[in-house]
# Entry
Amino acid sequence: RRTSAVERAVLAAERAEQRAQREAALRDAHYEREETHRYRAKGQVRERVSMGGQDAVLTKLKAGEYTVMKHGRTGKPSERILKISEELDRLVWLPVKTLVAPAQDDPRYSHGLADAEEIRSAREIDRDNPELLATAILRRSLDFAHADRALSVVWPHRTLDLEFATEAECQEVLHGLRGLLEAQSYDNDGQEEGDDGQEEG
# Structure
């Protein structure tokens, strides 16, 4: 029998829906493969960091072995040498080219770690704007093709936004600084508990 125009339209719509479902399934499978690959790659980086140990990362920071690009509120990123103080309580970012080296406690090029709120990857959520990633500065300045090699140190009233030469270096420092902050927080909590438990003489 002849197929009516309505039946042909219904059949065409069903076929279009089936094609759309197949395409969506293919996209989902591709996305899942990409995410699995990315997760495995990051896991390998994290494993290398843990095998090297946090002490190795902090030793490299003390020696100023990380050259980074510092992103700011205005202008182009500037090259800096990233360091940490011998006491592990101050982060320092010194200009690479300068006639007179600034002091490591110069507030223009350093900040204490005690009041840092977090070490945030450029791929992680901005707590002040949960629908966005990274920080306002990196969203303005960073080429997001390089997001895997950028991080921010977040303080209550400012951020330090850094882009590393490689993802591996970024992950080293990310996990090294996070571990340091966690250890310092644990020590501070333990000290407070000890103080609370002391009896008055």
Q: What stands out?
A: The first strand starts at residue 66 and ends at 71. The chain has a mean pLDDT of 83.
